[in-house]
TrEMBL record:
Domain Thioredoxin intervals: 3-151
Active-site residues, record numbering mapped to chain: 45
Name the record gives this protein: Peroxiredoxin
Pfam families in alphabetical order: AhpC-TSA
Organism: Oceanotoga teriensis
Length: 151
């Protein structure tokens, strides 16, 4: 099932890099940017997550919380986040059930076993307001999200 603009975003429970459980519904009243990426420890994903961390304060100015999501385990995400020296970015583990969040958002490669590269922006009421899927080796352009938020 394809997720569409204006639809309610599927809720989920997920472990972050600190092995704390959080769910989408925990952020009512905030916009959420779910930034899906295939795997930790890969160059394009590294830059994608570093850019989100660098722009974290700018996202906060728009009442947005960015979250990086991949199928990697929480301990893997913890080690990777430490290696990248991420200061504020929350990293979510779509490890188990394997790729469930990616599947719920129609952003999972069944034949490859990992989440696609995509950004999904969810409003304060839990509805999808902007989304874009990228090629695997394409770096997401955060300017297009900020341009949308400025409208």
């Amino acid at each position: 099932m394809e997720l569409k603009i204006g639809e309610k975003a599927p809720n989920f429970k997920i472990l972050d890099q600190d092995e704390k459980i959080f769910e989408l519904n925990d952020f009512k009243g905030k916009k959420i940017l779910l930034s899906f990426h295939p795997f930790a420890w890969t160059p394009v994903c590294e830059t994608q997550m570093k850019n989100l961390d660098i722009k974290h304060d700018e996202f906060e100015n728009y009442n947005v919380i960015p979250i990086g999501i991949s199928v990697d385990s929480a301990p893997c995400k913890a080690a990777w986040g430490k290696e990248l020296k991420l200061k504020k970015l929350k990293l979510g583990s779509d490890f188990w059930p394997h790729g469930k969040i990616g599947k719920d958002y129609n952003l999972f490669f069944d034949e490859k076993g990992f989440d696609k590269r995509a950004n999904v922006l969810i409003d304060e009421d839990g509805k999808v307001i902007w989304m874009k899927e990228y090629e695997l080796l394409e770096q997401p352009n955060l300017s297009e999200i900020f341009d949308f938020l400025k409208k």
